[in-house]
Amino acid sequence: MRADRLTDALPGIARLFRIRMPLRPLSILSALLHAYIGLRLLPALWVLSPVGAAALLLALVVSAATIPLPFVGLRSPRPPLHDAWRWIGLLCMGWFSSLFVLTLVRDAGLLVGWVAQWAGVLRFDGAAVRQWSAAAVPLLATAVTAVGFFNARRTAPVQRVDVPIRDLPAALVGFSIVQLSDIHVGPTIKRGYIQRIVEVVNRLEADAIAITGDLVDGSVAELREHIAPLAELRARHGTFVVTGNHEYYAGAPAWIVELRRLGLRVLLNEHVLLDARGAAGAQTDEESGDATLVLAGVTDFTAGHFDAAQASDPHAALAGAPASATTRVLLAHQPRSAPAAADAGFQLQLSGHTHGGQFFPWNLFVPLQQPFTAGLHRLRDMWVYTSRGTGYWGPPKRFGAPSEITLLRLVAG
Length: 413
Hints:
Blueprint: H1 3-19, H2 24-48, H3 50-66, H4 69-72, H5 79-118, H6 126-153, E1 158-165, E2 176-180, H7 191-204, E3 208-212, H8 220-227, E4 239-242, H9 245-250, H10 252-261, E5 265-266, E6 270-275, E7 292-297, H11 314-317, E8 327-331, H12 338-344, E9 348-351, E10 375-379, E11 382-386, E12 405-412
Parallel strand pairs: 1-12, 2-3, 3-4, 4-5, 7-8, 8-9, 9-11
Antiparallel strand pairs: 2-12, 6-7, 10-11
Helix pairs in contact: 2-3, 2-5, 2-6, 3-5, 5-6
C-alpha cells in the first residue's frame, strides 16, 4: 500500500481503536515484542547480574500489561485512578519504544561482530560483550526515557524565526505571529501545562496567535476545564485556530463551538483581513491593501473523511480576499496541504502535525507521509514552516525533537 493511502486510512483505524476495546491484537503484539526483548537480553544479563535480570523481567511484565491501557478507556469510579493507569501505560510505551530499538541495534551489532570473528577480521570476548550489552540496553533506554520525559514536560521554549517575504509591504514588516501546535490536551496534559504556555505567549506581545491543530485528545466534557486558560491568550489581532486530525477523533463540531465560546476564531476554509493599522477583521478598500495581511485557515487535510462538507480547500479559504492584499498566510495542520496552498497563491503556510518525529526513530518515518518534518522550507514561491509542536502525543517523551512556541516575524525578502 502506498504511504499516502496508508496515512489516509489512519483516521478510520484510530476510530476503530477507540470503539473496539479492549485492543486484543495490540495487547498480543505488545506481549510478543516484550517476549522477544526478554529472550534476547535476560539470559546474558542473568549471568552478569541476577538482580538486574529480575528487575528487567518485572519491568517487562509491567510494561506489556499497561501499554494497552491508554487506548482501552478505562471506566473507574475514581477518575484520578483512570489517569494514573494511563500515565503508567504511556510512560511504559516510551520506555519500551527505546528498549525495542536498542535491542534491535544490539542484535545487529552482535551479528556483525560474529561475522567479523568468523572472517578473522576481529577478535573479542563474545560472552562478555553479550553480557555487558544486555545490561547497557535497558540502562540506556531508561536514561533516554528520563531525558525525554524532562523535555516533554517542561514548558516549550520560544523559537524565533524570521520569514523573508518578497515584496512585503512596509506596513507589514515586523508583523509577528505566535504559533502553537499539537498541544494534545488529554490524559497527561492538563490545565497547569496550558496555563504556563499562555503566560509565555502573552509576554511575547505578538500581532496574532495561530493554533495549528491537534489541540485536544478527548471530549469537550472531559477537557473543558483544562482548555479554559486559552481564553486568556492576548494578541493585537486575536487568536486563530484550525482543526487537526485529532479534533475530528474527539468530536470537531463540539470543539469548534467550545473554542469560539472561549473567544478564539476558528477558521474553516475561510480568511480574515488583518489591518496593520487597525483591528482584526477590519474591512479594507483597494487603496489600503498594502497594510492588510490575509490570514486564512483550512480544515485538516483528512477532514473530508469525517465530514465531506469540511474537506480542506486552500482555494476556498481565499474566496473574496481583495486582490490588493498580496501578503497571504495560511494555517494548515498538515504540511502536505502545501502544494495546494502554493497553487492558491499563499506566501507562507504554518503547519504542525509531525512533532518533528517526537523521538527517535519515528522522525525517520515522517518523510513517508509529509513533505517536511520541521523548520522553515521553500516550496516554489511559498515558505512552509512546520512546528515540532508545543506539547506531545502519547508517551510524555521528546528526544532530539524539542517542543516549541514559535514566534514568526515577517521581514522583507
